[in-house]
Amino acid sequence: MEGNVLLALGLTLFAGLATGVGSLIGFFTTRTNTKFLSVALGFSAGVMIYVSLVEIFVKAKDALTGALGATNGYWMTIAGFFGGVLFIALIDKFIPKASNPHEVKLVEDIDAVKPQINEEHLMKMGVFTALAIAIHNFPEGIATFMSAMNDPSVGIAIAIAVAIHNIPEGIAVSVPIYFATGSRKKAFKLSFLSGLAEPVGAIVAFFLLMPFLNDVMFGVVFAGVAGIMVFISLDELLPAAQKYDEAHLSMYGLVAGMAVMAISLVLLA
User: Fold this and answer.
1) Sorting pLDDT into bands at 50, 70 and 90, what band is 53?
2) DSSP state, 120?
3) Handedness of CA 229, 232, 235, 238 (dihedral sign)
4) Which of 30, 90, 152, 198 is close enough to 16 for a disulfide, judged by CB 3.0 to 4.6 Å?
5) How far is it, in rounded angstroms, from Cα 258 to Cα 251?
6) How many helices (H) and strands (E) does the chain have?
7) Which of 207, 257, 259, 221 shows the shortest CA–CA distance to 59?
8) Among residues 205, 190, 137, 145, which one has the least CA distance to residue 4?
9) Would you call 31 helix, strand, or coil by DSSP?
10) What does the alpha-carbon distance between residue 77 and residue 253 come to, in Å, rounded to a whole number?
């Protein structure tokens, strides 16, 4: 158990810090590699969708039907899944579009808007944007942690998918903060720190959920994790992938992600 906890925390830290990698890419490159990001985001979505519906949802259903019976357990699994969808949907709903880190932005945007900097709103805008990012990353940390605790191989795959997703998110994060502060250093610092919301989510999951983790709690939380990841994939990753480049590339990435996840689950079973 102790080994799984340390691995799960390490994976969430790895995934969260990828936001900082995205910021670095934004500051040290002059053009966005849209084809790469389109395929990478599609790949990340494919991994998340496949593992959520084929592995995580099924494990949640098995735990709940074993504890509550076939009918009640299945209904509870469905409730947990859509509860996760509702949870992440509400987070997206209440984050203003301008500060939402999942809104597509390009590296080129940084220099394009330089004249628009308004010093009067520096700290307010920067702190609010960082908070918005942290709120988005928090449930992803819980999803990565809980998956890794149950099955390290699944946790590793999800952590990689979330990290891929966080790289372009780091670009999206650095742009609005740079708008607000005019400082690349401040933009990198705030976006880097915002990625730490994922390991914080893992720690919260550990202390609040682990003491009460019986079959019912595990099943409901795991079903919710599946719902969170499916929503992120369909609402954020795939639309972003298609905006970065042509739809075919994102679909190729999606299928490749599903295929890699399917093969991994067989080989690591």
Assistant:
1) very high
2) G
3) negative
4) 198
5) 11
6) 12, 0
7) 221
8) 145
9) coil
10) 29
Structure token pair of residue 93: 């709903």
Share the mean pLDDT of the chain: 78
Q: Which two tokens stand for residue 131?
A: 């908070």
Q: Which two tokens stand for residue 146?
A: 């809980």
The sign one gets for the Cα dihedral 15, 161, 134, 146 is negative
228 contacts 139 by C-beta, under 8 angstroms: yes
Residue 206 in this model has a pLDDT that exceeds 50 = yes
Q: How confident is the model at residue 116 (pLDDT cuts 50, 70, 90)?
A: very low
Task: Output the six-digit token pair for 130.
Answer: 């960082």
Residue carrying structure tokens 């908070």 = 131
Query: What angle is formed at CA 212 by the lines to CA 210 and CA 216, rounded to 5 degrees?
Result: 110
Q: Are 25 and 215 in contact (CB under 8 A)?
A: no
Single-letter amino acid, residue 136: H
Q: Both tokens of residue 150?
A: 């149950």
Tens of pLDDT, residues 117-169: 444 444 555 566 566 667 777 887 888 888 888 888 888 888 888 888 777 66
Residue in 5, 98, 47, 8 with CA at minimum distance from that of residue 238: 47
Q: At 108, is the pLDDT very low, low, confident or very high (cuts 50, 70, 90)?
A: very low
